[in-house]
Amino acid sequence: MPSAPRTDDEVLATTDVALLLRYGLTQDAFRAALSGDGAVAAAVTLDRLGVVARSVAYVAEVVRAGGLRCAAELTEPLPSREASVLLLDWLETAARVADTPEGEERTARWLDTVAEIIGLRRDTRARSGRP
Question: What span, in angstroms and rounded, lies between the C-alpha atoms of 122 and 131?
């Protein structure tokens, strides 16, 4: 039986993105949670900070091109300082545990998922006339 829909605030209150990255990138048992609640919580958080999808997708490409360590060393990967600090913390967490090409690709795909969710949220708001 499907669970009842949760609000953004409920997802944020019950999801630790950094913890899910730490375990979801390395342990199969946590991968679904990272791709589900972890990606949603990250997208909601970044969306509320005004981050657009293409900025997160860009960081995913940096991970693919230069690796997690390179992405984690970017000065300001997102347009706002607050969002950059948060994303850099997530990237640093991922870089500590996902030190293989497969782990880096998993992280890049997760970032792509986060970007897609941000885009869907913004498109839905635009269609409904909400800011």
Answer: 8
